[in-house]
Design brief:
With about 350 residues, this protein is α+β, with helices and mostly antiparallel strands. It folds into 2 domains: about 210 residues, 3-Layer(aba) Sandwich (Rossmann fold); about 130 residues, RNA polymerase II/Efflux pump adaptor protein, barrel-sandwich hybrid domain (OB fold (Dihydrolipoamide Acetyltransferase, E2P)). About 25% of the residues lie in helices and about 35% in strands. The chain has 9 helices and 19 strands. A 6-stranded mixed beta sheet has the order 6-7-8-3-9-10, with helices on both faces. Strands 15-19-16-17-18 form a 5-stranded antiparallel beta sheet. A 4-stranded antiparallel beta sheet has the order 2-1-4-5, covered by helices on one side. Strand 12 and strand 13 form a beta hairpin. The longest helix is centred in the middle third of the chain and has 18 residues. The protein is globular, with a radius of gyration of 22 Å.
Length: about 350
């Protein structure tokens, strides 16, 4: 079952035309430059736009407002109600409560704010309340438009990880708009890229990162691994096919043995040699095969696609290095990845 969207809405500078099929599970991200139509598309999915032709079908039936949990850029709280009363508004409308009250209050850090009024809250606190209210309404589909834009980086990262928890624990499908590449890459399963109202590309996240323009502009890859060991130095060991990697545990993440874990790799953080290197501080040396090569944004550089098992990732090297090492498609190489680079926050935005 899927979420089908077909909308045509005339805006000031362009016509938003989107015909999409999103999975009805996991997390789908809508990205694009400012003014590309992301918010309008999300509002159309929610049924808030009446200035065009829009059809939205969810799990085989027309999507109804009561099925949706919606968080817009502005929190839209009831000013005359306390935080608890705002939250109860969503909670009481639900006929069944599979997502618990106490869990959401704790996850959103609202225990000490329940008796406050919205005017007494900061912008970030208001966003947390609006997010909690949407979840407590027990939605079948969660729609989010820059829901954590007013939060500091550490708090935002906590809420981003909580989105992953929600979709995995409760099979809650989520569609969200974000400019933060670090967030999109960390938790999203499906990616939609808008440009001037048109769907430039859409599909599984790992596949879309390999396509232009993201391939050259972002040059970041995602590898799926499994946690196999956690030691007392706050390092963890990951299995990647028949090979292993090591990296510091991410801040605030309680990893468990056997847990799937996705790592983000900047192409610029990967170097290549023809043989393993001894006595190096670089702890991750992966056996790979070169399966692709293309020009990078700088004329002196190349993006090299490397296969490790059934997955691929990118390395950014100079043309001079390509020639000196006599590299070509099919060459077996060793990819070097600094452990410290694999858990850093990505600073780019989309």
């Amino acid at each position: 079952m899927s979420l089908h969207i077909d909308c045509t809405i005339t805006l000031q500078h362009f016509v938003l035309q989107a015909k999409l099929t999103l999975p009805s599970h996991g997390i789908s991200a809508i990205v694009g430059e400012s003014g590309s139509g992301k918010t309008t598309l999300l509002e159309a999915i929610a049924g808030l736009r009446h200035d065009g032709a829009t059809t939205v079908v969810f799990q085989g039936r027309p999507l109804q407002l009561k099925q949706i949990g919606l968080v817009l850029q502005q929190p839209q709280l009831f000013p005359h109600l306390s935080v608890e009363q705002n939250l109860r508004y969503g909670w009481q409308r639900a006929t069944a409560h599979r997502i618990g009250w106490d869990e959401v209050i704790a996850a959103c850090g609202l225990q000490d704010l329940l008796q406050q009024r919205p005017a007494q809250l900061s912008g970030g606190q208001q966003q947390r309340v609006a997010f909690a209210r949407a979840i407590l309404g027990q939605p079948q589909l969660l729609l989010l438009d820059e829901p954590f834009s007013a939060l500091d980086e550490a708090t935002r990262h906590h809420f981003v990880r909580y989105l992953r928890t929600l979709t995995e624990r409760y099979a809650l499908p989520i569609v969200w708009v974000s400019h933060q590449l670090t967030d999109v890459v960390e938790i999203s399963d499906y990616l939609v890229v808008l440009h001037a109202g048109q769907v430039r590309q859409s599909g599984l996240l790992q596949e879309q990162l390999k396509q232009e323009p993201l391939r050259s502009q972002v040059a970041v890859s995602v590898l799926s691994t499994t946690v196999v060991e956690i030691d007392n130095t706050l390092a963890c060991r990951l299995q990647l096919g028949d090979q292993h990697m090591q990296l510091p545990q991410p801040h605030g993440a309680a990893l468990k043995i056997g847990q799937p874990y996705r790592i983000r790799i900047y192409a610029r953080d990967v170097s290549l040699t023809l043989a393993p290197v001894a006595n190096s501080s670089v702890q991750n040396q992966l056996r790979c095969e070169i399966v692709g090569c293309q020009a990078a944004q700088h004329q002196a550089e190349l993006l090299v696609e490397l296969a490790v098992g059934k997955q691929t990732f990118l390395a950014l090297i100079t043309r001079n290095a390509w020639q000196q090492l006599q590299l070509q498609l099919g060459t077996q190489v060793i990819a070097h990845l600094k452990a410290a680079a694999l858990h850093e926050t990505l600073r780019e935005t989309l």
